[in-house]
Each structure stands twice: as C-alpha cells, then as structure tokens.
C-alpha cells in the first residue's frame, strides 16, 4: 500500500524540528524509527503533509545515570534499552519490556520516544514506565517540561504531548534496595504486541511486602496502575499465596476491557489476573536475590 503524498525534511537539530512542528501544526509528523508511523501512513490512517525526520539526531540517543535516576534519550532504540547493563541493574522493568518488543528488526529500528509518543494501548513500555514511576520530558517552543507517567497517557493513541512538542527523554528512578521487578506479557502470536502485559515492582523487608506498584497494558484503552492489586499486596507476607490472592483482584476497576477477534474482554481480564500473579511472584523472587 502506498501512503498519500508528503514532503520530507531531515531535521539537523532538535530546535529545527520543534520550529518545523510549530510552523506546520498538525499537518507535520515527527519520524523516528518509522515502525508505527509508516504502517499507519501506508494504511492511510494518517496523512501528514510533512515528515520531520529526527532519526539522525544522535544527541537524543543515550542511556546514562544522573543522580538517583537513569535518563534515556528519546531516540534510544528498543535494542539499546534491552541490552543496557545500567538499566538492567538500576531500572530493569524498561529493559525487560524492551527485550520482548516485536522482533529483532523492530527492536533495531524502533525508539522508546516513538513508542511512548504513539501510545498504542497494546505497547509494552507504557506498563513499565507507569510501574517505574518514570517522568517523560517534553521540549517545545517555550522550553522543557516534565510529565509524570501517571499524567501522560490520556487514551488510546493519545498523550499529554502538545502537537509542537518533542518527547526528548524518559527519566527512570533507580530501584530502591530490597526491590525486585518483572515485566511479563502474553504476546499476540503474529505481531508480538501485548494482548496483556503486566509490570510489577515489589519492595520486601523482613519477609513482608512494604511497597508494590503494578501496571497493565493491553487490558484497557489506556495503560493503568492497578491500585486494587497494589493495596492488597502491601503488608502481606512475600509468599506465593498472598501474591495470588492480590492478583485475583486485577483489572477490577476496568469497565470496558479491550475486545477483538483474538481476545475478548473477559479473556483479557482473566489474563490480567494470571500475569499479575506471575509478575508479582517474579518480582518478589528478584527482590530476595
Ligand atoms: C511488526 C511489528 C511488531 C511490533 N511489535 C511491538 C510489540 O510487541 N510491542 C510494542 O510495544 N511495540 C511493537 N511495535 C511497535 C514498535 O515498537 C515501534 O517502534 C514503536 O511503536 C514506534 O517507535 P518508532 O521509533 O518506530 O516511531 P515512529 O513510527 O517513527 O513514530 C510513531 C509516532 O510517534 C511520533 N514520534 C516519534 N518520535 C517522537 C518523539 N520523540 N516525540 C514526539 N513524537 C514522536 C511520530 O510522529 C508518530 O506519530 C511493533 C511494530 C511492528 C512494525
């Protein structure tokens, strides 16, 4: 399939990209890895008249430690995130989510910024950034602003980014001592997207769970933190039975689960419980190791 006609500019700097977005408004689209935008253009679901290619801006491709956080540039590839020893040690949820995105080709072209800007309800990173309590940094004509992950996802394919803003960085707090993390998903057999994905981060002290964050992707129109599961697991013994009891409460607040020919809403809610149980158990085991 062939996209509608469009103009193309390779941005030489972040400032140039922002100024082009400002000048062309919603007619312009940023191009990063192109692994979501190009398929949508081919299907004519989007018809930008201008593509602003930021893929060559190497200054946005980094993963580095900054104080108690790990800063990830928006153009870090999924494969950079998956392989990063720094992330694996300090903020493993992001690396775990990146390592199960699509296939090798997708991971070698797609970027974390592109995925989070696209906000597909079945994408993997959203659950990981929510459970990590990451901050998304956007830059626009008037400077930078930080958006907490919980305020960033507004609906299917909709985020708090303004049309003239570029997502430039994701900042992930390092794990506290005694904390373990796990991201697990039930992948769609064709695309690899998450039919349901669960990110769990659990802090254990003296055999008891003292903190928990659990987030889902794929279950509803937006990724979400599951306060029900989190509340049920804190204060309980860090043991399989307590994790299973808490996981049974997963997705209770979801009124309209996603439903399609592959997985009904009811099945997705069932999967949410199963994957919450597994992810909590893995996170507890990681906290103990
Ligand atoms: C076969 C296949 C399988 C896939 N499987 C999975 C999977 O299992 N899990 C998963 O999570 N994803 C999956 N994906 C999607 C993949 O992860 C994409 O790489 C990602 O969604 C988009 O990243 P990109 O860099 O390619 O962005 P692009 O396609 O270039 O851009 C996507 C959108 O984000 C905007 N954008 C890009 N960068 C920025 C920025 N820095 N600031 C603001 N806006 C920006 C663009 O304008 C566009 O609207 C799959 C894709 C394919 C083709």
List the main descriptive attributes of the protein structure presented here.
289 residues, alpha+beta, Uridine Diphospho-n-acetylenolpyruvylglucosamine Reductase, domain 2, Uridine Diphospho-n-acetylenolpyruvylglucosamine Reductase, domain 3, Enolase-like, domain 1, five-stranded antiparallel β-sheet, four-stranded antiparallel β-sheet, 27% strand, globular, binds flavin-adenine dinucleotide
Describe the protein in words:
With 289 residues, this protein is an alpha+beta fold. It has 3 domains: 7-53, Uridine Diphospho-n-acetylenolpyruvylglucosamine Reductase, domain 2; 58-173, Uridine Diphospho-n-acetylenolpyruvylglucosamine Reductase, domain 3; 179-288, Enolase-like, domain 1 (2-Layer Sandwich), CATH 3.30.390. Helices cover 35% and strands 27% of the residues. It has helices at residues 14-24, 37-42, 78-83, 85-90, 92-99, 104-109, 112-118, 125-132, 149-152, 227-233, 240-247, 265-288; strands at residues 7-10, 28-31, 50-53, 63-66, 69-73, 135-140, 143-148, 153-155, 158-159, 166-173, 179-187, 194-205, 208-217, 224-225. It has a 5-stranded antiparallel beta sheet with strand order 4-5-10-6-7. The chain has a 4-stranded antiparallel beta sheet with strand order 11-12-13-14, with helices on both faces. A hairpin with a 2-residue loop joins strand 8 and strand 9 (158-159). Helix 11 runs antiparallel to helix 12 (265-288). The chain is globular. The chain starts with 6 loop residues before the first strand and ends with a helix. The mean pLDDT is 97. Flavin-adenine dinucleotide is lined by residues 29-37, 39, 74, 101-102, 106, 110-111, 113-115, 117-118, 120, 123-124, 161, 166-167, 191-193.
